[in-house]
Amino acid sequence: MPERAVGPDHPCPCGWGEPLTGCCGRYLAGQDAPTAEALMRSRYTAFVLGDVGHLLRSWHPATRPEDLDLDDDVQWRRLVVLGAERGSPFDDTGTVEFEAHYRHAGRRGFQHEDSAFCRVDGRWVYEGPVGNRVA
Questions:
Q1: What's the whole-model pTM score?
Q2: At 92, is the secondary structure helix, strand, or coil?
Q3: Which string of DSSP letters, residue by residue, matches 7-42?
Q4: CB 3.0-4.6 Å disulfide test: which of 2, 13, 113, 132 passes with 128?
Q5: Alpha carbons 88 and 119: distance in angstroms, whole number
């Protein structure tokens, strides 16, 4: 069940300010993300919306879990992209550093991660935190 309802014309949860349909919604619907950062933003949006399918589809096969059980009590509030290296439409690897802010049990928190991305069959996928790259 989604943590918060976001209509197609509402601002995308990723923070770019575009409507969901013209931003991350297209990647959740199956369009390939053009950059590592765009994929990372769509994965954050998938966490907000509870879209487990997108999270699993966009995860590297070698590091992807068999299933994913999201905590319905976590309310994702804000994404802050701190930096990105490589990950352009012309690269095969990239990293994106971010903070994902949330509330859980009435307390604020954030997840800080420097995420590794690579292309598999031409599509960007999430590998995991930097240091967990697939060899």
A1: 0.91
A2: coil
A3: -TTSBPTTSS-SBGGGTTHHHHTTPPPSSHHHHHHH
A4: 132
A5: 11
